[in-house]
Amino acid sequence: MKLFESELKVVNIGLESFRQGLNDSGVKNVQAQFKPPLSAETSLFARTAKRAARITRANKKALDRILAARPALVGMGIALDVVPGMRKDLILHAGPPVSWEKMCGPMRGGVMAALMYEGMAKTPGEAARLAASGKIKYAPCHEHGAVGPMAGIVSASMPVFIVKDEAHGNYSYATQNEGLGKVLRYGAYSTEVIERLNWMEKELYPALKSALEFLGRIDLKTMVAQALHMGDEVHNRNRAGTSLFYRAIAPAVIRTCKDPERAAKALDFINGNDHFFLNLSMALSKASLDAGRNVKDSSLVVVMARNGTEFGVQLSGTGGRWFTGPAPVPDALYFPGYSKADANPDIGDSAITETNGLGGFAIAAAPAIVQFVGGSASDAAGYTLAMYGITAGESDSYKIPSLDFRGTPTGIDVIKVAKTGVLPFIDTGVAHKDPGVGQVGAGVLSAPPEPFARAFEHFARSLK
Amino acid sequence: MKLFESELKVVNIGLESFRQGLNDSGVKNVQAQFKPPLSAETSLFARTAKRAARITRANKKALDRILAARPALVGMGIALDVVPGMRKDLILHAGPPVSWEKMCGPMRGGVMAALMYEGMAKTPGEAARLAASGKIKYAPCHEHGAVGPMAGIVSASMPVFIVKDEAHGNYSYATQNEGLGKVLRYGAYSTEVIERLNWMEKELYPALKSALEFLGRIDLKTMVAQALHMGDEVHNRNRAGTSLFYRAIAPAVIRTCKDPERAAKALDFINGNDHFFLNLSMALSKASLDAGRNVKDSSLVVVMARNGTEFGVQLSGTGGRWFTGPAPVPDALYFPGYSKADANPDIGDSAITETNGLGGFAIAAAPAIVQFVGGSASDAAGYTLAMYGITAGESDSYKIPSLDFRGTPTGIDVIKVAKTGVLPFIDTGVAHKDPGVGQVGAGVLSAPPEPFARAFEHFARSLK
User: Fold this and answer.
1) Does residue B95 sit in the same domain as residue B113?
2) CATH number of residue B451's parent domain
C-alpha cells in the first residue's frame, strides 16, 4: 500500500521521449544516462576480457607509436609523381570504398570537377558519362596514404603536401585547401571551381613548393600543439593553425618567389581562408595514426572516414579491413536558405583528426564551434571529457588550456566503444546532397554505432 | 558551559597567518574571504551613496564612450613629427610623473639607451650625466597621448604607430615592440640594443609604414576580439594578435617594399616576436579609454600606469590628476638565475590593457599565463570573475570563450574598488631593478591599494 501513498518519483532509462508524459503530468522524474552496449553478443565481451592483458599491451604499443610520431611537412609534389599507386585514370575519394553508382551527390560532383580539371571532360554531362563508363577507377584516399576533406577527391594533376612522420619514416599526402563557397570538395564543379584549381596548380603550388624547399621542413606537431592553445581543434576551426603556418612560410615565399605580386597573391589566398590548415592537420593525423597500424591484438581505431554514403572504420589489429555502416546527417548550423533536408550524410576523411585525439575530441579547446549549434562552453568540455571514457590514453603533446592543459583523449578503443555505447564525437562541415551546390552548413554529430559494433565483433571473434 | 563541551570551530577574519596556530593544533577553521574597504572615511561612502544615481549616469556615459570606441591603426610616423608636444630634449616614460633622481634602475637604463640612440651621448656614463644634467625633460607618455610598455621610453627619433578612435576622432601613439632579451624597455642599453633600434627606424619602420599606407587602415578592435578567442589576453600573451596582424600586413609589405630581402627581414622580425602586438593592444586601449575621459561625476578609472617607483591612477571625472602610491613587486616566474630579490617594482603603461577590460581582466581567456605562476585554468577564470565585482559593465566586443563568450569586465569603478577592497588584477613582465640588465621574469599581481584609496577620497570629497 505504501507505494500508492508516497509521492511518485520515476527514473527513466533509455528513450528520453518516455519522459514527456511524466513531465506533462507534473511527475518528478530523472533521466538515467544509460547506454546499452553496441553488441548483443555477450560472449564476445567475455572473449576480450579473457585476453585483456594482451590487448592492453598491444594497445599501449600502438598508442605509443601514434604519440611518438613526429609529423612534419617536408615538401610538395604532383599527385601522379608522389602519391603511391596514383594513375591518370584513378580518382581517390574520402571514406571507405564506393562505386560511382553508390556515390552521394557531392562526391559525384567532386569527381566531375576533377575530370574537367584534368581536361578529360569538357562539360558536366560529359564528365558524368565518363565517370560512369568504367574507364575511371576509384579508390579510398586512405588506401594510398592520403586524406581529403569532404568529397576528398585527389586526381593525378593535383598538387599535394607531403608529410613525413620523422620518427617512423612513413608518409602521408593531402591536397591544398580550396577555401569556402563553391569548391570541389563540397561537390561544386562550375567554371570558377575549375579556374581556382588551375590557379592553385600553376601559381600557388610553385610558390609554396619553393618556399618549403628553402625552409627544408615545417614542424606540424608543434604547430598543432600551439593551435590548441589558440582556440582551434584543427578540424572545424583552423584560424590559429592557418595563422601559424602563414607566419612560418611567408618570409620564405617572399625570398623564393621572383614575382612579388605572385607571392602576395599566394599569401592573400591563405590569409583569406581560415581552413587552409585543415588539410595539413589531416595529413599530420594520418601520418601519426599510420604509425600505429598493424599491431597484432590491438583494438585501437586507426581510421574513421566517411564517403557520404557509409561511415568506415579500420583497427590497428585488423589491417586494411573496413567496417562500415550508414553515415548519419549532422546536427548543424545551416546557411540561410538551407535546412537539414538539404544536407548530405556525413562525408570526408577529416574524422582522421578525431581518430588522432583532435577535432571533436579536443572541442573543449574550441567552444566557439559548439556555440554555433546552440551549445555552451561547458557542453564543449563535456564532449571532450566523455571521450576519455573510450580512449586508451591521453596525448602528451596536444593539450587543452581550459582543462588545465590535460592531454586530449587519444587512441579510440573499439572495445570501450562497444561496451559503453559512447560513440566518437565529431565536428564537421555539411555538403548539399546534390552535386554542384557546395557547402550548406557546419555542425556536430556522434559516429554511427554499426561500424564500431561490426569492428568489435570481428576483432573479438578473430582473437586467438 | 556548552561552549567548552562542544567541538571548537573557528572562523578567521583578516590576516591568514592567524590560522597557522589553529592548523598546528588540529582545530577546524575556515578563512572568511573578507576584505576591509580601502578608505576608513565612512562619510565619503555616504557622500557617494547620496549621489549614486548621478554617478551611475555619468559612469554609463563614460563606459558607453569607451565601448563605442573604434580604434584602428591608421599610419606610422616619427615621434617628433606626430606625437603632440614632442621635442628633441623631451623623453616620455611610463607611469605617473617622475624625476631622474627618483627613477628606478630599468627606467634610467631606458633613458640612457634613448640618449645614445638619439646620438646625444656616446657612452652609458655620458648618457647618465646628460640625463641628470637638467637639460633633458621628462613627461609621462599618457600626457602626450602615448603609451609604452615597461620603461615606456619614447624619444624624438623613434617611429610610432598612430591609432585613431574612428568613433570619436582621438588619437594614440606607441612605439614598435623590440622583442625579448636585451631591450631598451627593460632597461638594457648595450650596443645590440642601440643597433636594433637603428634597424627598427631605418628598415622595419619604412616597410611597415608603406604597407599601412597601401592598406589605408587595420581594424584593431576586431583583431583584439579575435585574439581573445585564440588564447591571448593581449597583455602578457600576444601570439594570436601578432599572428593576425602579421597575416593582415604581410601581403602589403611584399607589394610595397622594393627589396624582397628587406621585406622578408621585416616579417621575420615580427614572426620572431610574439609580443609584437602588445604595443598595438596598448595603443588600442589608450585610444578607447581617452574617449571616456572628462565625464563630470564619473568614478571610472581611465588610466592605470606604473613608472617602476609609483603606481598611478586617473579617473574620468577628475581630469589629468594623478593619484599615486608605491608600486609593488609582482609574483612571477623568474628566469633561471634570478629571484624576486632581483625584481624591480611593477613598471609600465601596459596596465592600460587591464583598464580597458583586457590583460588580467581577460585572463580567463589565457590560462597559460596563470599556469606559469602555479595557478590553474579555474584560478584564471576566478580572477576574471572577481573583476566583474569592481567594473561598471561588460565589453560588447571582447568576449571570453570559456565563460560562454561573456564580455570582459570593463570600466573599473573606483567606488566599487574602495568599497570592496578588491583590487585590479594585472599580469605583467618583470624587469631587473638595475639599469642595463633587462627582463628577469613574468607574472601577476594585484594593484596596490593607496592610489585607489586616494582617488576615491578625492573624488568623493570634490562631488558637488
Assistant:
1) yes
2) 3.90.1700.10
Residue A251 has its nearest CB partner, among B264, B403, B405, at B264
Which chain B residues are Cβ-neighbours of A377 within 8 angstroms? 401-405
CA A300 to chain centre: 16
Same domain, B108 and B223: yes
Are both B60 and B87 inside the same structural domain? no
Report the C-alpha gap between B39 and B32 in whole angstroms.
20
Does B377 contact A244 at a Cβ distance shorter than 8 Å? no
Q: Which residues of A touch B267 (CB under 8 A)?
A: 250-251, 254
On whether both B181 and B305 belong to a single domain, the answer is no
Do B275 and B340 share a domain, yes or no?
A: no
Q: Do A231 and B368 touch (CB under 8 A)?
A: no
B37 domain residue, yes or no: no
Residues B275 and B297 in one domain: no
Examine residue A37 and state whether it is found in any structural domain, yes or no: no
Residues 6+ apart with CB under 8 A from A23: A29
Whether residue B439 lies inside any domain: the answer is yes
Count of pairs with CB atoms under 8 A, one residue in A, one in B = 110
Query: Chain A closest CA to B263's CA: distance in Å?
Result: 8
Within this chain, do residues B20 and B136 fall inside the same structural domain, yes or no?
no
Q: Which residues, including other chains, have CB under 8 Å from residue B111's CB and lie 6 or more apart?
A: B91, B93, B100, B103, B127, B131, B136, B138, B151, B153
Domain containing B174: what range?
72-283
**One digit per residue, pLDDT tens: chain A, 464 residues?**
566 677 667 766 666 666 767 777 777 776 666 678 898 888 999 999 999 999 999 999 999 999 999 999 999 999 999 999 999 999 999 999 999 999 999 999 999 999 999 999 999 999 999 999 999 999 999 999 999 999 999 999 999 999 999 999 999 999 999 998 889 999 999 999 999 999 999 999 999 999 999 999 999 999 999 999 999 999 999 999 999 999 999 999 999 998 999 999 999 999 999 999 999 999 999 999 999 999 999 999 999 999 999 999 999 999 999 999 999 998 888 889 999 999 999 999 999 999 999 999 999 999 888 877 778 999 999 999 999 999 999 999 999 999 999 999 999 999 999 999 999 999 988 999 998 888 888 888 999 999 999 999 999 999 99
Looking at chain B, which residue has its C-alpha nearest residue A403? Answer: B377
* CA nearest neighbour of B194 among B119, B100, B86: B119
* Among A232, A247, A260, beta carbon nearest to B254: A260
CB within 8 Å: B368 and A401: yes
Residues of A in contact with B230 (CB under 8 A): 230-232, 239-240, 243
Closest residue in B to A251 (Cα) is B264
Give the whole-angstrom CA distance, residue A86 versus residue A79. 7
A-chain CB neighbours of B250 within 8 Å are 246, 250, 267, 271
Among B243, B265, B283, give the residue marking a domain's end.
B283
Whole-angstrom Cα distance, residue B282 to residue A182? 40
Residues B233 and B298 in one domain: no
Q: Is residue A272 part of a domain?
A: yes
Integer Cα distance of B455 and B324 in angstroms: 8
* Structural domain ending residue among the three candidates B265, B283, B301: B283
CA distance A114 to A116: 5
Domain count along chain B: 3
Asked whether B451 and B429 are in contact (CB, 8 A), the reply is no
Q: Determine the residue among B224, B242, B243 to mutate to test chain A binding: the one whose Cβ has the most chain A Cβ atoms within 10 Å.
A: B243
The chain A residue lying nearest B399, using CA atoms, is A368
- Domain of A263, CATH number, reads 3.90.1710.10
Nearest CA among B349, B344, B327, B338 for reference residue B142: B349
